[in-house]
Specification:
This is Secreted protein. This protein is mostly beta strands. The chain has a single domain, classed as Sandwich (Immunoglobulin-like), CATH 2.60.40. 12% of the residues lie in helices and 56% in strands. The chain is built from one helix and nine strands; from the N terminus they run αβββββββββ. Strands 4, 5, 7, 8 and 9 form a five-stranded antiparallel beta sheet that branches. It has a four-stranded antiparallel beta sheet with strand order 1-2-3-6, with no helix packed on it. It is elongated, with a radius of gyration of 21 Å. It starts with a helix and ends with a strand. The relative contact order is 0.21.
């Protein structure tokens, strides 16, 4: 009986030390559609060794245009925005991954375009991460 009570006392700090609401190191962002709904993107923001990493998927439907995911991140160091575009021109789903260092916020926009640049049918920018959220 004493042994059981002793083990229960030892286990109590372990359950209190690891709360269910621990600091998050990963945030999912839901699907964002282009204005014509022919392109979509979704993914995750994770904390890496040297800052934040945005990884995601770009879906393209059959047609002559390509799907673009345009990701913008505001640097925590100098406040400047870094922009990277990822495109996929085949029917189906393509993936992307980009490291941004430490950032204040990250936004994504989905467009249609060519293999060289987005040309239109863009969604509004969606904020997928803000510092402190």
């Amino acid at each position: 009986m004493r042994l059981l009570a002793f083990l229960a006392v030892l286990a109590l700090p372990l359950t209190l030390a690891s709360p269910a609401a621990a600091d998050r190191t990963s945030w999912k962002w839901g699907t964002v559609y282009s204005a014509d709904a022919k392109a979509s993107a979704w993914g995750r923001v994770t904390v890496g060794q040297s800052g934040f990493v945005v990884s995601g998927n770009v879906r393209d439907i059959p047609g002559k245009a390509c799907s673009w995911a345009i990701v913008r991140a505001q640097s925590a160091k100098n406040g400047r925005w870094k922009t990277h575009g990822f495109y996929y021109c085949k029917p189906g789903v393509g993936t992307f991954r980009q490291s941004y260092g430490y950032v204040l916020q990250i936004k994504v926009q989905v467009c249609r375009g060519t293999a060289k640049q987005p040309t239109g049918s863009c969604s509004k920018e969606k904020t997928i991460f803000t510092q402190g959220s």
